[in-house]
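Posting for a labmate who doesn't have an account.
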Amino acid sequence: MFAGSALLLGAVLGFFAPVPKRLIAGIMAFGSGVLISALSFDLMDEAYKKGGFFATSAGFIIGAAIFTVANFFLSRRGAKHRKRSGDHQAKEAQDGGGGLSIALGALLDGIPESIVIGVTMIKGGVVGIVAVAAVFLSNFPEGLSSSTGMKRAGKTAGFIFGVWGSIALISAVAALCGYLFFSNFSDEVISATTAIAAGAILAMLADTMIPEAFEEAHDFAGMITVIGFLIAFLLTKMTR
């Protein structure tokens, strides 16, 4: 719930405050670096230790494939620029892109992240701090940039906050389901599930967050991403 609340916080700030697009891009680049670190060390490394190479590799490819296929169809129905803060969403609205597609796209981005928060609690009993921080830092710029773009596209405050508030609640339920549904499964199944989430997250980063960050931050996007990665890496080592 805490990680998902960043979507609503970002949406409120993006709707009411004139946040510079380059600042949004910088936050998004930072969040991308944090997520890359989290999926590398908290997800893929742990999945490999728990379930081995085959289960981890299969899950990783499947997760990326599921995201790519779903994102392809949603993009063709008006959700291609769901993370954009500029006039991209307004153009999609003129071309028939609907708010439902944007909401479904946001769910597609957020559910794998949330499920894996619940999965990190299995057997350990403690929420993965780095995983939560990574999701929070990726959700905040998404809510911020998307609400700015939705506002430019003519969406009402009720629609925007309703979308992000609902997705925050669904994210909390997804995390709970990740813990409850997979607690009794074998290590191989848990490993594959974790890797599926990691594959989906990495594909999401490459398809949506990093291009948006680079478009506005340009030459500084890489450095900001590296800083985000390093901070998350240090947190991972400090909490073990």
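Reply:
Got it, the structure tokens are right above this. The chain is about 85% helix and 0% strand.
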